[in-house]
Amino acid sequence: MNKFLSYLFSGILISTLLIGCNGKSSSDLNADVARFVTSSDEVVGYGYVNILAIKGKAQLSQIPTIGEFVNNQMESFENSLRLTDKIHYALEGPLNNDGIPKYAYVFMSVENEDSTLQMFKEMGFYFEEVNDMNVSFDMNMAVGFNEHTVVMVSGNFGDDPKDKLFNAFASFKNEEKDTDVTEILATTTDILLAGDLENLYQTSNTSLNDLAEENQAEIKEMVRGGHFFMTVDFNNGNLTAKMDFSRVNDKMKKNTFFKDKVANDVLNNLGPGEPIMAMAMSLDIEKLENLMKDFSPEAERSFYNSMGPMGSMFASLTNENLSDILNGDLGMMISNSEDSDKMDNSNNLPNSHLYLGLGKNPQNMKDLVRTFASEEVISDLGEGYFKIENSMLLMKDKSVVMHSNDTLKSDFEIGEMHKVKGLEDFGSKPFSLFVDLKTLGDSEFNKMKGQFDVMLSIADYLTLTADNERMIFKLVLKDENENVLKQVIDIYKDDLKSRMGNISF
Q1: Distance between the two ends of the chain, CA-based, in angstroms?
Q2: CA distance 266 to 357
Q3: What is the mean pLDDT of residues 402-416?
Q4: CA 41, 47, 50: angle at the middle one, nearest 5?
Q5: Per-residue DSSP letter, 416
Q6: Helix, strand, coil: what percent of the chain each, to 5?
Q7: Looking at the predicted structure, is the pLDDT value of residue 43 above 90?
């Protein structure tokens, strides 16, 4: 039965690449899933695949051999299930060490009850009628449907495999629907992945359970009623994923640690040069430090330990308070230098710039650098400049700027990065990441050669931004006119043909 179930899910996944027009943001199934999620204190994740929003995006049906295969295999699904209502799912905790939920649910609307029964029978399911439903089950899988809805549940059920199935159908009759859950499920996107923070914590088995009772109680207050969700959209020329953390209570919001935007001093000191990769962020380091001390007391010590002997020296300087040496402003830029005289070929180091904002006691860092200079570990070049092998460091009043492949004061230039496509809004959010994929693919710093060359050949750049409420990832392709799914499938269509040829229903 599990083999047939895998075929079912494979077919549903294929259908998401086949079918479509704009799906509704709400439906009877959508409302029923909201009731189910609301009624459970064990649901840690939920969402849907909006198969109608993917109409024509992949255009699998237009590819010879693949299109014929997909159309033939999916015909029974389209006749049996109302795919206009999207394929919903829910996950119950706890999650195991591999992130696998204890129980997984799939919810689908029925288009034709007789066709649905025939479809499942052809897959090898055997049904009995119970409470006006067709039900099939074993110790790890239960499937049930009536004239409106299909519910599939997988997990280790124990003695009563039907219990979870019947409880799910019973929840559809509840009146209560959580406002946040209802609004999240009404979001229009291609793929929706959402989570219940309170249930995630309550069903978790992590080191957080080893904290003092007062700290555990504080976490429970922070996650109470909290939800997050991620949308994934396949657009013309780009893939965009957005994570939303805004649906949390005031106590959680008070513990967020990003500043409003990246500090100007970071942006003014990352250049010059055209970046292959750039990252900048500005954190409230004291707030982050307090969170680590309360809820992850070993994190700061692990940070120092990861730095080896240098980390021990940092720890002694800071009295184990990270905010003594760092203020939370950090930036990094890697460029593809064309000046061979400035490249360290022996170590194969990229041309990189690093910015560190100094904390409450900047003198500690300055004293450490000068101690290294006095012991001739590094060379003091005067005026705040220090040489470290084939790199240079500039000690400023409130920051440290470090350049690899600079060895002369006359070569050490600072300023803003040169603006390139995709870097227009860099720094407007307190965490900003940019990667020039088209240049990376052609550069000597591409350590993934042979693995992702095909994808890099169509990619332009990627960005990742984050603040205290949202995180946005965007992968932009060189061709901005054709859908990202269509472009990827065109690359791998030969591989798809061979894989589909090995599947027999």
Answers
A1: 13
A2: 8
A3: 88
A4: 160
A5: P
A6: 35, 25, 35
A7: yes
Tell me the helices (H) and strands (E) count for the chain, helix number first. 17, 20
Q: Could you tell me which of 221, 289, 229 has the C-alpha nearest to residue 249?
A: 221
Task: Compute CA distances 297 → 89, 207, 214, 287, whole Å.
Answer: 36, 11, 14, 14
Distance CA 152, CA 137 (A): 10
429: tokens are 């959010």
8 Å CB contact between 357 and 398 = yes
Residues 6 or more apart in contact with residue 358 via CB below 8 angstroms: 325, 326, 327, 365, 398, 399, 400
Q: What is the pLDDT of residue 300?
A: 64
Could you give the CA distance from residue 274 to residue 420 in angstroms, rounded to a whole number? 7
Beta bridge partners of 379: 387
Give how far Cα 479 sits from Cα of 292, 341, 483, Å.
44, 36, 9
More confident residue, 265 or 64: 265
d(CA 448, CA 231): 28
**Pick the residue with more confidence: 410 or 450?**
410
The whole-number average pLDDT for the span 223-227 is 94
Task: Give the H or E element holding residue 33.
Answer: helix 28-39
pLDDT digits (tens, 9 = 90+) for 228-283: 999 999 999 999 999 999 999 999 999 999 999 999 999 999 999 999 999 999 99
- Count CB atoms within 10 A of the CB of residue 68: 12
4 close to 61: Cβ distance less than 8 angstroms: no
- Given a contact cutoff of 8 angstroms between Cβ atoms, the answer to whether 405 and 351 are in contact is yes
Asked which of 175-184, 197-206, 324-333, 487-496 is least confident by mean pLDDT, the reply is 487-496
pTM of the model: 0.85
Residue type, 185: L
- Whole-angstrom CA distances from 333 to 184, 185, 343, 413, 438 are 37, 39, 15, 14, 16
Asked if the model's pLDDT at residue 444 lies above 60, the reply is no
**Coil, helix or strand at residue 43:** strand
Tokens of 46: 């939920």
pLDDT tens-place string over residues 88-118: 999 999 888 788 899 999 999 999 999 999 9
Task: Say if CB 372 and CB 316 are below 8 A apart.
Answer: no
Distance CA 143, CA 105 (A): 10
Amino acid at 163: D
Decide: 109 and 82 in contact? Cβ < 8 Å: yes
Structure tokens at 87: 């394929």
- Sequence-separated (6 or more) residues with CB below 8 Å from residue 264: none
How many residues appear in the chain?
505
191's tokens: 């793929």
